Amino acid sequence: MGSRMDTRTGDIIGPGRLKILREEFGGDLPEYLKEMKIRPTVKQLIYERVGRNDSCGCGSGKKFKKCCLQIATAADERELVNRKFMP
């Protein structure tokens, strides 16, 4: 079980926190917690987050802001629109 990245914020979730989250969510983790295909750098581990201009943790080779951050932002916007306009 490796680290995961919160695509909404860039936060890195280590194995200890993952265990707690699995218990809270009943075994299933939310979709926005993606498995990191590449190891976090020392800087990322110190700050516990992936910076906007860092390589994305999903392993695509793109910057985080051009990859998973955009996907998460679009999903959050759709959720807000649905909540606002659907009773």
Taking the alpha carbons of the first and last residues, their distance comes to: 40 Å
Based on CA atoms alone, the radius of gyration comes out at 14 Å
Largest sheet: 3 strands, antiparallel
Name the quaternary structure.
Answer: single chain
| Residue fraction in strands | 5-15%
Number of strands: 3
For the largest sheet, list the strands in their spatial order. 2-1-3
Number of helices: 3
Walk me through the structure.
- The structure is a single chain.
- A hairpin with a 5-residue loop joins strand 1 (4-6) and strand 2.
- The model has no long low-confidence stretch (mean pLDDT 80).
- The chain has a three-stranded antiparallel sheet.
- The protein has one domain (4-85).
- The protein is flat and about 45 Å long.
- The protein is 39% helix and 9% strand.
- It is mainly alpha-helical and 87 residues long.
- It has helices spanning 15-24, 42-47, 68-85; strands at residues 4-6, 12-13, 33-35.
- The termini are far apart.
